[in-house]
Amino acid sequence: MNNLFLGYESRYSGAFDLQDTFKTAPRMCALATTNLTNGVNYFRGKQEMSYIVSAESTEGNRIIDNMDTGKDWIFQNGSSAEHLGRYDEYGNGGTFYIATANEDDVAKHRTILRGCSRLNNLVETYLYVEVYNNKAPDFATDVESAFTVEVDEVFEYQLPEIDDSEAGDPYYTGTPILYVEADLDPLNEFPPFLSFNNITRTLSFRPDSKWYQGLEWKFRIVLKESDGTDNVMKVTECTVKVAGEVLNLFDVLEFTDYTFEMEKPDRYGATSITWSNPVNTTFVQENWDGMFDVYLKNVTLRDHNQSMPLLSWDYLSSSEDNKTMYFKARFHEPYMLGLLTKKSDRLYVHFKYDLLDMHGWFKEDKTFYRGMFLNYPNGTAANHTLQRVYPDECQKDGELSPPIAEDAEFESTKNREKLYVKQRIDLQFDFENQEMQYMRQFAVKTYWYLCGVVVFQFIMLAFRNVGFLPLWTLIEYMQLCAFIPLYNFRMIPYLYDAFKPFLVSHLVLSNDPKVLIEMKDDFFNINYDYYTLSVAKLGQALALLTCLAVVVIALNILVFIVWVATPKDTALGKALGGVLKQFRFNAYIRFYMLAYFDLTFFAVMKYVEGNTTTKLR
């Protein structure tokens, strides 16, 4: 409803500060009017005061019920009275709520609630609202606002008496209340060593920790009325400082720092992760994928340098000291790793950088991973503040990152992204791989094939009596082929099995040697090791050659004795004479050629080592 008519002012009302003239003054334009009895007495800054019309004035309630098309609460000059409060037509059938903290509102106000009936007749009610000035309670004397205390010192300060100058006024309500609260700035914490006794008005400071030393806190002493609002109160901003120099926890405390190293993978993919301090290896193993990435850098000289996943990364066991964890790595195409042109193949174990903050502690949303730390021997939980992972690298990121207050979104992770260990991958002999299994089975079959070829050729040449030169030539070439894996270069792992059958030409007839057992795991160099040609196997081959030499000499002696006892002009005598010539000019030369490579390349005499720990050595 728009204000077509201002509140009526007569020479009996509006010009005088008298309620009775306001009550009886005639209204020229209003069909029905009434003064709401008593009015409202309100102290500025108090809590909201309610004036329920139905409880105070029956006539006023009846007139308000006739305001069908809306209600306006205004002053006599027609301006809105809403800065004094509000009128709620639904609260208890109609209620005025008075609340103001503005000092300009301190006065006696004549307000009008006007509206129109459904017949468009103007009706009005009149309410006096007198706002009294109100000041916050204060202290009788000045309050100390700056405090300096010592560590392990108890310091108490009693606040002065409270002076409430308005106490006892006719319409004054409430009592002074006093309390202590934190500073409004959320970055300023409340002093953890401060307590307040409201009865005795005493502040008690008890800084009982050296970590308070050199630090400063802010707090507020608040004095207000029990039924007042925050608009009228006495606030004293205070500071308290603990004497001394600020302690740097990184210089004072003894931390347990965790790092890890990786052992170089062996030819079967077995490796280990060793921690600098004991860890909960069961927890680490169960949460490995959440904490680590494992991959390899497959490097070809000119083609590529890229990260590749592993076929599997299997946990095997842990050491009793809870520091070493054993794993087995399996790769896709393992026989292509560690070759002569791929000496830069590396296995990486990478700690996930997003788990740690810039001090080396697990982030707040990653505290679950603190389970990797062991508890104290008595079963109590360890102090995780003293346990850090790669703190030096994490703190370098702190030096690269701006303060949180300047740019909370930016945080360097440059150094945390480098929390990895790597080891070179040598030739991999993974016999679970299908290609490697195939070549091993092929080698076994080839071994028996070559043995059969040598025996068959010997029988056929002896039967045809054409000489054994083709057989000697075949054996010599087999001996040469058997040397190839021993040269100083690396072959694709499955090719070592492909060449092993040729070792039969050197009388290496079995995988399990029967002599020099203590040296079955000793090798001249890494190439012999890849070829699984141990000193024990070579010793066994030399022993067989010696036995063969004894047999040749014994046969020579036997043939000579029979030849001496046989007439020379007989057919047998001539035949025995021809055999003796074969011994003299052929058999010993062929035996020497057969044994030459073994004596020069495989002889036990090549095994030069100062290890004399056993009787055999």
What's the alpha carbon Rg, rounded to whole Å? Answer: 52 Å
The helix tally amounts to 13
- What quaternary form is this? single chain
Structural class: alpha+beta
Straight-line N-to-C gap: 119 Å
Morphology call: rod-shaped
Number of domains: 4
Mean pLDDT: 79
Summarize the structure.
The protein is of the alpha+beta class and 617 residues long. It is built from 13 helices and 27 strands.
Summary tags:
alpha+beta; 13 helices; 4 domains; Immunoglobulin-like; rod-shaped; 617 residues; five-stranded mixed sheet; four-stranded mixed sheet
Strand and helix map with partners:
Blueprint (H helix, E strand, L loop, with lengths): L18 H6 L7 E4 L4 E4 L5 E4 H4 L1 H8 L5 E5 L9 E4 L6 E4 L9 E9 L5 E11 L5 E2 L6 E4 L5 E4 L3 E2 L12 E7 L11 E4 L4 E4 L10 E10 L7 E10 L6 H4 L3 E3 L1 E3 L7 E6 L5 H6 L1 H4 E8 L5 E5 L2 E7 L5 E7 L15 E6 L35 E3 L1 H10 L19 E5 L9 H31 L4 H15 L9 H7 L26 H5 L4 H31 L5 H31 L16
Parallel strand pairs: 1-8, 2-8, 10-17, 18-26
Antiparallel strand pairs: 3-6, 4-7, 5-6, 7-8, 9-12, 11-15, 13-16, 14-15, 16-17, 19-20, 20-24, 21-22, 21-25, 23-24, 25-27
Helix pairs in contact: 8-9, 8-10, 9-13, 12-13
Task: Provide a descriptive summary of the structure in words.
The chain is α+β, with helices and mostly antiparallel strands. The chain has 4 domains: 19-132, Immunoglobulin-like; 138-247, Immunoglobulins (Immunoglobulin-like), CATH 2.60.40; 256-424, no CATH class; 445-606, no CATH class. The chain is 26% helix and 24% strand. It contains 13 helices and 27 strands. It has helices spanning 19-24, 53-56, 58-65, 249-252, 281-286, 288-291, 391-400, 434-464, 469-483, 493-499, 526-530, 535-565, 571-601, and strands at 32-35, 40-43, 49-52, 71-75, 85-88, 95-98, 108-116, 122-132, 138-139, 146-149, 155-158, 162-163, 176-182, 194-197, 202-205, 216-225, 233-242, 256-258, 260-262, 270-275, 292-299, 305-309, 312-318, 324-330, 346-351, 387-389, 420-424. The strands form 8 sheets. Strands 1, 2, 4, 7 and 8 form a 5-stranded mixed beta sheet that branches. Strands 10-17-16-13 form a 4-stranded mixed beta sheet, with no helix packed on it. The protein has a 4-stranded antiparallel beta sheet with strand order 19-20-24-23, with no helix packed on it. The radius of gyration is 52 Å and the shape is rod-shaped. 22% of the residues are buried. Residues 1-28 and 604-608 have low confidence and may be disordered.
